[in-house]
């Protein structure tokens, strides 16, 4: 099997293998060895039903660096606008002998649905589905943490902001737990916390000072306004005052703490520019590591190194 839908339920061994494979691609790239023939003759189709800068670009670059042929279907100008169903669109692309679909969709479960309906010779990689999962984002974040902190076991990781709507937070929490992080905290107003979030094995804080205390890694998330009912939209200025990451609030974390954000960032809402552009920020490292992780996931997927379990939905 070759699908990569979620980080939930994957073994520590598989997550570690993805990180180690990506680490070697990142080292190769740093030494200017950018292209390898692992996916030569394969066709990768990027199917993004939601907007993206980082994920789409780095999947395209990663596929090209693996020597695949890459097709980015422009959904807004595709025949979906003439009423073609998702299934018919997929069948049409399969008829072009595609080997891999990289899918982003606003519906939670879309990647899982597609994986269940494609022919067995097509792999499906989830590039973000609704609030559900964004597994390659989580893995590039794990690679970034590994490259800067080494071992996961002593780390206190604080994830801050709109946890309720964040597929990134869910995928990060599953990966961090499996990789053995010492403590995973979520910090958010109660209105932006999912019910029963504690069941995922996290500590919940509604106060930044308490939640950031002695943290090694601080991961900021943006307010996902596109997924919020307008009545529930918090005031940006109030949110920034209480939960926006400033150098002053960052003082509560460990002196060598690092700051991460999956992007896109909203300066002055969840993070101040002095932090986003400051010496503790790994935000652009995350973007760079996205290429290596996507190379690892695509090459492992094509060589059958993913596990059957990965078809399971985190929503189940
Ligand atoms: N982090 C992330 O998914 O960014 P994009 O929406 O730009 O792909």
From TrEMBL:
Enzyme Commission number(s): 2.1.3.2
EC supergroup of this enzyme: transferase
Binding-site list for L-aspartate: 82, 167, 222
Reaction catalysed by this enzyme: carbamoyl phosphate + L-aspartate = N-carbamoyl-L-aspartate + phosphate + H(+)
Function: Catalyzes the condensation of carbamoyl phosphate and aspartate to form carbamoyl aspartate and inorganic phosphate, the committed step in the de novo pyrimidine nucleotide biosynthesis pathway.
Subunit structure: Heterododecamer (2C3:3R2) of six catalytic PyrB chains organized as two trimers (C3), and six regulatory PyrI chains organized as three dimers (R2).
Name of this protein: Aspartate carbamoyltransferase
Organism, as annotated: Neptunomonas qingdaonensis
Gene: pyrB
